[in-house]
Amino acid sequence: MLKKAIVLSGALLMASAAHAAPKTLYAFTGGADGSFPEAPMIETGGVLYGTTSSGYGDSYGALFVFDISKATLTASYPMPAGTSFARSPNASLPQFGKTLYGIEEGSFSTPNGSIYSFDPTSGILSTVYAFGQLPDGNYPQSDLVAVNGKLYGTTPNGGSETSQNCSDDGCGTIYQFDPTQNVETVLYRFQGGTDGGYPGQLIAYNGDLLGSAYNFGDPNCQCAMLFRFSPANNTLTTLYAFQGGSDGAGGGEPILQGDFLYGASYDAGNQGCEGGNGCGILYAFNLKTLKKTTLYTFPGGGGGGEPINGLIYYKGKLYGVTRTGGTPYCNRPNGCGVIYQFDIAARKAKVLYAFRGNHLLYGSALATLTLVGDTIYGTTADSHGGYNGTIFSFKP
Fold it and tell me: Which domains can be identified in the chain, with CATH numbers?
């Protein structure tokens, strides 16, 4: 692939000749704005909302407000004392009515995690539910999803005390949260058998919920599974169990486009990446035929490896980030990862940008990207040399 060099503040960065390098919009200072943004941002009314996982006061993190048109961070709010924002790269701030809701994984005053709300008008940020011990869920890490006036989410721990193949903390739960009453109800407790365990992000689909979890019930591969859950009768159905190897091992955080789930499996596939577990794949799952197709196998090296978190869809193409690969001129020996594009119809992948972890305004991207109009926004969680992460944008 033809490359061109882009010089930014004396650091050599690489981008595809057809795409300019990402534009840095903001560099976090680690003060009142926080540091290390590790979760996806959401957009509403021309404003991006996101969180940092540390760096405010006693390292509780902050919720930030970024005005796109002004290219300015306009406000920052600390998490209530004794709690901290989630470090999970999948825990963004979904909107319910005029209020944003999020989760945190556990801290001093809420050791099992909590749900919080944020009112953009008043700037009030409040803890609205604290998770308890078994049989409640523990340590939530994924977005809440709004369906028919309720919010739904998962916890990777907690639930049943009799679960198989999991730790003493349980295999996880699917729960419902009523934002009008601030009441949480556990709907399903994973057992770690054929129903799997450690569930991730949920997706609303025709009144049901889709998701992925690790499938401990497969004796040959403790790999992931895709499932469908019905809140109407609290039943869970396995849609597909990954087999490892070229098939992929992890379900990732799939997205829904029409009747297809598109996802990135973190490991398996090409075995040339860190740890010898494979460089990862992209896959499609047809919800009508219940057939899974491997779309692309990451090569590692300059082509990127170990895709993490969710994808975004724009005009027939998928966009995402990898944890490793890219340029060798990076603070990590396996690369700091890339932004990639995958053309679904043509079945072709393209590296759009290789991150440079030792540059003031570029680190490595951990969070799922955010699409606003014809522009993609993202964050880097860190930049080595004492820097605290960035917000960036680029045109796909």
Answer: 1-26+253-396 (2.40.128)
